[in-house]
Amino acid sequence: MPVSNQWPEVIYYRLLIPEILPSDIELVLYCDCDILIRGDISGIFNENLEDYSVAAVEDILSPIAPMSINLGCNPEYGYFNSGVLLINLNYWRERNITRKCLKFINENLHIIKHPDQDALNAILNKSWKRLQYRWNFLDSYQAQYYCKEHMMSDFDKANDFYPIIVHFSGVKPWNEKCRSIYKIEYHEYFLDHRVSITKPEHSFFQKVKHAIIVFFDKIGIRKNKVNYYF
Length: 230
Fold this sequence. Notes:
It is a single chain. The protein is 31% helix and 10% strand. By secondary structure, the protein is an alpha/beta fold. It is built from eight helices and seven strands, in the order αβββαβαααββαβαα. The strands form two sheets. It has a four-stranded mixed beta sheet. It folds into two domains: 9-131, Spore Coat Polysaccharide Biosynthesis Protein SpsA, Chain A (Alpha-Beta Complex); 134-219, no CATH class. α4 crosses α5 (115-123). The mean pLDDT is 87.
C-alpha cells in the first residue's frame, strides 16, 4: 500500500474493521483521530443501513466531477469523506468490500490521491447513504457561514442541528495555524479533563494579523467573513 507523511499506514486499518471485529457485530461507527465529539452520538445509530454499505458525509471534493470520473465513479452519487463512517458490517462481509478496496488501490496507484478514501468511493459509489453534515463537520465548512450569528449558533449548540462530530480534516487544532473556532473547544475539553496537552503559541506576526482582521470586522470591511478570537 502507498504511504506518505500525509497518508501513513494507519489509514488502511479502517478497511480491516469487518475482518477484525466478531461476526456478531453488525454495525460500527468509525472515526478518525482528528475529531472532536461535542454531543450525544446515539442518534447516528438510528440510520437505517439495510440496503447501504456505509452512511457518510459528502466531502468538499464531491463537486469535482473529473476526479470522480477518473476513479470510475458516477458524479451523480457524490464523493464521501471517510473520516467518519457508519459501517454496515454484514454488507461489507457478504460482498468482500475489504478485498475489493485493497485490490483497487493496488491496481490504480497512478490515479489515486486519497488512497483509502478514493478506493471506498470507487467501490461503494452507488451504495452509500448521505448523513447530515453535523455528523462529520469538516473544518473547511466554517468558511461557508454567512454571518457570525450562524457560526456562534452552531458553536453554542443553540440549534437542533449543531455540529456534533467536528473533523479537523485540514490544519489540526494542536497547530497554531488552525483557524477553526472549534479549536477553542478542543483545548477547553483537554483542560477540563486534566489531560496534558501543549497549547500552541501564536507568533507575533500571527497576533498582528489577527488584530488586523478583528479591526476590519469591527469597522465592517470584512463583514461577510467569519472569524473567531484567539
